[in-house]
Amino acid sequence: MYEIKNGVLFQNGKKTFVLGESYYPSFHPSKFPVPPEGDRMGEMVRDLRMMAEAGFNHVRFAALGDVSYDEEKGEATISSPFVDAMIAEADKNNLSVSIRLQGFSVNLRGFSDADILNEKGEVPDFAWCDFVRTSTNHKGILEDNFVHARDLARHYNTFPNVIGYQIYNEPKYPQCKTCFCDYNMHSVIAFREWLVKCGVLNEMEAKEYMPPRARGEQSPRMWALWRLFSAQSMTAFLLNASEGAKAPREMPTYTCQTSDMSCKMNAVRGVDAFGIARGMDILGYTMYMHGWGSEYYPMCFEGDIFESAAKLHGKECWCIELDSRTYIPPSVYNRGTYATIGSGVKGILYYQWRGDCPVPGVPYPNSCGILNYDGTKTANFDNALKVNRWIASVNDLLMGAERAMDGVGLFYSFYALAFSDAVENLAYDISQKKCFNMSATYLTFLYTEMRKTGYTVTVTDGCGLKENKLGIKVLVVPDFHHISPEERATIEEFYDKGGEVFVGVPTSDTYHCLPRMTRFDRVERTYQEKVYLPPICAHDLPSLTGIIPKAIAMNYEIGVQVLQGDGYTLLLLSNIACRKDVVDAMVRVTLPFTTAEFTSVDGERKVEIYGDILVVHSIRDGGMIILK
After folding, report:
1. What strands lie across the sheet with 500-506, from one edge to the other?
2. For position 481, what pLDDT does the model report?
3. What residues have CB less than 8 Å from 282, skipping those under 6 apart?
């Protein structure tokens, strides 16, 4: 028997780490592992049996089928015989199930004025993965989304092994090369009302106001507010459908957000983990970066943002899609797993079980899966089973531990990302290759430096800082110049209460440089060019603040993440060297401990102890030191 309590999976009353797979026999006209003329039922039965035998305990399906709407009753009728059969088959194999309720945008009543529009008033040329295609402020669409989610949930609630629902997949605004969204009049009118509510415009000023359709058309503040409003609208759109899914019976909901929070394009994509965490039961995200080389710290950063946002609201975090391509080397699969676990997630769903048929129109033929589209094993298949066995062997330790809190926080400002986008990209369209966003660069750079110093970094937005439930004592604000007036007031309030604040400032007169930091002292002259500012780096923070990291990697080839349980500490180690298959790990630990053991997918190793230095030789992909 499976159930979810407070974002944690319980199997027969025991806390269990979620080991899941995505299995979509067809959620898109050109995306399926078994073609319509094939034996979909027979292959599905085989696949689910193999999943259970491989050690997986969860599978994610999509609500595929026909949905018809009765306007008189205001209800939807569901017909999904194949999905029903999959759920029943999963139950036979003791697999828990979650279901993605929406594919592309829901428009049950066929509203003709609901499309997302670009700045030219045109329907964009959507990519196949642009799942949200209607205005997020169209009241009829919001009602349809609620009803659709409600009645699908009502249908699937009858299955005992269905434990939760996904609201959309990778929801964001379309990034269609040279367009901005959403200029549908329903969103424009909602933005006017929002500006009045926020005191930016009065009702007379707002009556005919139109949001900026290009950077530089209006002040950077108005551009930033337009993008901030758009992000909040996307969040509200998703939470509205989440409430629909929970209406028949309180079942957990999550969405699968793109891991874009720290990227330069999030100013236009509108991904908001902090907003979603306030309303959904589990915070879910996708991850297609890898846990080694130059991607290790950005990958960890995204995981830490989502886990921090979840914890700020008393929730748990799952990685809903972790890259498991058919051609991915086992070592990369393993390193990604170690790094994801190190962010404190309570579940991993790999994407996906089986590759898609290589037929015309398929976006990624036979690309994602631990099985090839024809059912044969990839080179990673047997390794993936070893990973599952290892995670099961340390299940109790993982489920009893949380990401360590050092009291060191990094401030995340969506407004700053949008403001930076406004002032830096006047000459460019939104093409990812051309855009700048130094606010995003500052974020990632300072996070990386703080991690290399040894800190477990808590990421917070303004609302989270105001409540400060995670006990931040030292706050780093990467882009103080571009935060909103409301965020600045919150930071000053934190400072006045005794918190220490360090702000990022450019290293020269040219803004496009990596930042140094300086102490915040509320004296405006601190930010004037002609005042000398002592350059503070992340590695200065321990001596300046007295907060000593719990574990510090002594060699650059190893990444360290810290989880803490009752009476024990887990150090997740990752081999982040691209040119070395095997490395030695040297870690300085400032926590008291009596014993140290090392375990990994490849087996156990001896931990050599030299005072406060731990040494583990010949680590292949990574592993875990258990301190007690």
Report:
1. 458-460, 408-411, 474-477, 500-506, 515-519
2. 86
3. 4, 7, 164, 252, 253, 254, 310, 315, 316, 317, 318
Side-chain-facing half-sphere of 47: CA atoms under 13 Å: 31
What angle, rounded to 10 degrees, do the helices at 330-342 and 381-393 form?
30
Tokens of 13: 């009353």
Residue 603: per-residue pLDDT: 95
| Rounded distance between C-alpha atoms, residue 345 and residue 314, angstroms | 13
Beta bridge partner(s), residue 10: 3, 15
Map residue 325 onto helix, strand or coil: strand
Reply yes or no: is the peptide bond before residue 130 cis, omega within 30 of 0: no
Which tokens go with 366?
A: 């036979």
* Number of other residues whose CB lies within 10 A of the CB of residue 593: 15
For residue 316, name the pLDDT band (cuts at 50, 70, 90). Answer: very high
Secondary element (H or E) of residue 387? helix 381-393
For residues 615 and 608, the answer to whether their CB atoms sit within 8 Å is: yes
d(CA 47, CA 370): 11
Question: Does position 239 have pLDDT exceeding 70, yes or no?
Answer: yes
Tell me what the mean pLDDT of segment 285-298 comes to: 96
Residues in the chain: 628
CB 590 within 8 A of CB 549: yes
Peptide bond into 432 cis (omega under 30): no
What CA–CA distances, in Å, run from 238 to 149, 263, 280, 428, 510? 11, 21, 9, 30, 40
Cα dist from 360 to 157, 357, 367, 376, whole Å: 37, 9, 14, 21
Mode of pairing for the β-strands spanning 162-169 and 96-100: parallel
Helix (H) or strand (E) holding 253: strand 253-257
Write phi, then psi, for 49 (nearest 5 degrees): -65, -45
| Residues whose CB falls within 8 Å of the CB of residue 81, separated by 6 or more in sequence, listed in order | 65
* Higher-pLDDT residue of 473, 433: 473
Decide: 173 and 181 in contact? Cβ < 8 Å: yes
Determine the pLDDT at residue 176. Answer: 62
Q: In DSSP terms, which residues pair with 69 in a beta bridge?
A: 76
pLDDT (tens digit, 9 = 90+) per residue, 29-80?
777 888 878 898 999 999 999 999 999 999 999 998 899 999 889 999 999 9
pLDDT tens profile 321-345: 999 999 999 999 999 999 999 999 9
Mean of the per-residue pLDDT values of the chain: 92
Q: How far apart are CA 484 and CA 418, in angstroms?
A: 10
- C-alpha of 185 from chain center: 30
Which residues does 227 contact at the CB level (< 8 Å), separation at least 6? 267, 268, 270, 414, 418, 421
